[in-house]
Amino acid sequence: MSSLPAGASEIAAGVRAGRFSAEQAVAAAQAAIAARDPALNCFTILYGEAALNEARAVDARIKAGDPPGPLAGVPFGVKELYDIAGRVTLAGSKINRDNPPAQADATLVARMRRAGAVPVGAQNMDEYAYGFSTENAHYGATRNPHDPARIAGGSSGGSAASVAAGMVPVSLGSDTNGSIRVPASLCGVFGLKPTFGRLPRTGTYPFISDLDHLGAFARSVADLALVYDVLQGPDSADPVCSGRPIEPVTPALEGGGTIRAAVLEDWFQEGAGPEALSALAEAAKALGAASTVSLPGAANARAAAFCLTAAEGAALHLADLRARPGDFDPANRDRLLAGALLPAAVVIEAQRLRRWFQQRAAELFARYDLLLAPAAPCVAPFIGQPTALIGGREVLVRPNLGLYTQPISFIGLPVVAAPVHLPGRLPVAVQLIAAPWREDIAFRAAAALERAGVAIAKVAAS
């Protein structure tokens, strides 16, 4: 971002030390957005002068001697399903344009602002978070900064691509079936999907309440950890937010002893392309993960996650599906209509399988601290590409980019997606999967890969 530091930690330190102002940091991000976003389409709304005024308020706090917060002056992007006070929450849709503006910030946006960070705009996504490509029928496709002919992944595509392109150092996203981990992989940045219930979802437009997670993107483990520590804390307004005590991960990035790591095989490698398998092997070697293990029932878990997604998504949007079917993205409309036809018995059976699958994962975590798997089966497909060859079969792109992420979010496990450096190739990432509430282990593993030069998130060349 201009001549200023590119990382969130460095920006905040510079602002607090008076080396440059929060206003300068935000203005630099706005200049980067103006230069790169017209070609990439990461942002749907820019906050312009409002963001600069907010940055000036941070500078005024510093001048008055008040603590500006750990993210002082850090510009960040917000996936379009987060509420921003005074603005309509579009959630990637046309239908939501008729809604009134939000009365308050989403809880996580409010926490970022209290920490001194400044939102600079809302970011493109798949309509209602239902997709893995961010090829939005209403607002256009977000393009991958590493190859603009390719997708950024989704549904948090605008959030991941804006970080990969150097427009902002960090951004907020959401992950129901892989919507942080897939774009993190395709765009080559770090992404966090925490334990289900760890971060409150208050003030975000829902997709599937049983599966929705919130998280973040960054270009370094330190920045991702800093944002995660700021976001933590209970919120009684979210019924699944556990109220567990805040457990900072930043102090643990360099310590904690040996991590017992294993590589997931079977489902989690079947169909994986050469880039995904090479990245997995590099990460496993660096972490000393010599064992391979199977997580039984992963294929059925993915199918069950599909069923829950379709059924609950259809229930949420049923009134609009009846009254305004022509205003949906056609691809999403048809999937939601199919979900409305699912028998209730299918949903019940999916929930039963979920409990069984959780037990199988718990058995693995009795032996290992960390499980490794690809975050996506392939590098980014081309925009408009309907199918891809995965595992020797021609399959639809949009539903199949989440092959390896859906079984993991189905049971709410914490994951850091770590981009693995493969010279001369498009980005890919590895899922660093920990037991529930052990985000610290996933972060320690990501930091170890970063120190080893295996996990690297580079700003994509313009």
Features:
single chain, 462 residues, Amidase signature (AS) enzymes, two-stranded antiparallel ribbon
Structural features, described:
This protein has 462 residues and is an alpha+beta fold. It has a single domain, classed as Amidase signature (AS) domain (Amidase signature (AS) enzymes, Alpha-Beta Complex). Helices cover 37% and strands 16% of the residues. It is built from 14 helices and 17 strands. The protein has helices at 8-17, 22-40, 48-63, 107-114, 157-164, 181-187, 221-231, 274-287, 298-323, 330-340, 344-365, 397-400, 406-409, 439-451, and strands at residues 43-46, 75-79, 118-123, 135-136, 140-141, 143-144, 147-151, 170-175, 190-193, 213-218, 261-264, 291-293, 370-374, 387-390, 393-396, 415-419, 429-434. The strands form four sheets. The chain has an eleven-stranded mixed β-sheet with strand order 1-3-2-8-10-9-16-17-13-11-12, with helices on both faces. Strands 4-5 form a two-stranded antiparallel sheet. Strand 6 (143-144) and strand 7 (147-151) form a beta hairpin. Helix 2 (22-40) runs antiparallel to helix 3. The chain starts with 7 loop residues before the first helix and ends in an 11-residue tail after the last helix. 56% of the residues are buried.
